[in-house]
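in:
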């Protein structure tokens, strides 16, 4: 526990806590990370309740799709992390096309509930996502953050995290096919 924060895999027994985090975020409440997993037509058709139901089935699978952060036992934040191969959006994306043929894991989404923002929780979620991925066999982690210096961003665009947060955690930029969206990596072994 760090400053009252603790972190756990997002498993089915934590479904109510996961929903509390997503429901505190306007886009997260409707997206449920389906943006990354589903073909665009399915993601858009499921916006809202469809994506919520889909996400419940994802959380029920054996491999947790991310980690959940708590502050003194209250659900506070989410970080999506899983093998890159499970994300349909990444398989189809030209800007985020594979850098090479390594089997990497991807960190793609952060959600922090309003009462816990501006307390460094995203950085703690990142640290624990790295630990979770490493403990589950990841040799390399990849992410697609926003470079705020290259783009005037609003908060809605920061779900993938900020470049500075990843660089501070030891990630290095390995590609940049969009001006404000680099691909960063961290070796886990």
């Amino acid at each position: 526990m760090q400053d009252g924060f603790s972190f756990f895999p997002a498993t089915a027994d934590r479904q109510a806590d996961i929903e509390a985090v997503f429901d505190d975020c306007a886009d997260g409440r409707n997206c449920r990370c389906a943006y990354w997993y589903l073909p665009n037509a399915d993601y858009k058709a499921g916006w809202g309740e469809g994506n919520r139901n889909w996400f419940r089935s994802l959380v029920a699978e054996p491999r947790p799709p991310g980690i959940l952060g708590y502050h003194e036992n209250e659900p506070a934040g989410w970080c999506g992390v899983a093998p890159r191969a499970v994300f349909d959006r990444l398989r189809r994306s030209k800007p985020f096309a594979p850098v090479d043929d390594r089997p990497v894991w991807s960190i793609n989404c952060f959600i922090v509930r309003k009462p816990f923002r501006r307390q460094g929780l995203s950085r703690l979620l990142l640290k624990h996502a790295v630990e979770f991925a490493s403990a589950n066999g990841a040799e390399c982690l990849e992410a697609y953050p926003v470079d705020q210096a290259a783009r005037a961003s609003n908060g809605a665009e920061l779900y993938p995290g900020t470049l500075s947060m990843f660089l501070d955690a030891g990630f290095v930029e390995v590609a940049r096919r969009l001006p404000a969206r680099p691909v960063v990596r961290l070796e886990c072994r």
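note: The first helix runs from residue 15 to 23.
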